Amino acid sequence: MFLKKQSVLFIFLLYICNFSTLIFAQQKIQKLNDDSPLHFNQWELLIYRPENSGTMNNIRCWLKLEDENGNDVTYSKCKATYYYANNVVKDKKAETMQFGSIFHRSAPRQVFEYQKTYFLEGGLVMYLLLQPGKYKISVYTPKDQQYLAKIENKNEWTSNVFEYDTENPAKVLFVSPTANDNGFYNGGWHIDFKAPKYFKFTKPKM
């Protein structure tokens, strides 16, 4: 009799667990397909570098975050993780939008922790959690991390400076390589809140 009661109790608990899992899964699906407006934390920022052509795709650029006084606060005022733009859960509406609409109604399947430094490469999305304040955001590539010998710029590749305020935030910033008038990479980066022109690969900023 005691064993029979244990069996009934076990079956009941198993049923409850399965039912709870089903409800939770339905809630997750509902969140992905919900038409309600999305709400953002004003201290969250995505920096996305769409894929580039050739070797440029694998060349990394590193984040530089400065406060209003020009102090480097990259690793003291923010925390960063990253994921790959082609590894996200998307709904049917999102698939019709530019870049697969990874910033509209989607979620990364796997998020990675940076081991030491905060960097970007082609197809990578950096997720920043910033302390409240005003910042100057830029990226750079040191000399020893440049692999394109045909590029004339042998100095450190740098970007423009994007001024960012957590009280009036952009949700997403885009990073793209720069190019000369002929369309060839010239060793530099451009940061903008507007998405770059995109065909198979990102069109460089000229």
Number of helices: 1
Radius of gyration: 22 Å
Between the first and last Cα atoms, what is the distance in angstroms? 81 Å
The coarse overall form would be: globular
By DSSP, the count of extended strands is 13
Strand order of the largest sheet: 6-3-8-1-12-13
Residue windows where pLDDT falls under 50 for at least 5 positions: 2-40, 92-105
Report the helical percentage: 10-25%
Strand content: 25-35%
What structural class is derived from the secondary structure elements? alpha+beta
Sheet with the most strands, sense and barrel status: 6 strands, mixed
Residue-averaged pLDDT: 75
Order of helices and strands: HEEEEEEEEEEEEE
Question: What does this 3D model show about the protein?
Answer:
- The strands form 3 sheets. The protein has a 6-stranded mixed β-sheet, with no helix packed on it.
- Strand 12 (172-179) and strand 13 (185-192) form a beta hairpin.
- Helices cover 16% and strands 32% of the residues.
- It is α+β, with helices and mostly antiparallel strands and 206 residues long.
- The chain is built from 1 helix and 13 strands.
- The model is unreliable at 2-40 and 92-105 (pLDDT under 50).
- The chain is globular.
Outline the fold blueprint:
Layout: H1 2-33, E1 44-49, E2 61-66, E3 78-84, E4 88-90, E5 106-108, E6 112-113, E7 119-120, E8 124-130, E9 134-141, E10 157-158, E11 162-165, E12 172-179, E13 185-192
Parallel strand pairs: 1-12
Antiparallel strand pairs: 1-8, 2-7, 2-9, 3-6, 3-8, 4-5, 9-10, 9-11, 12-13
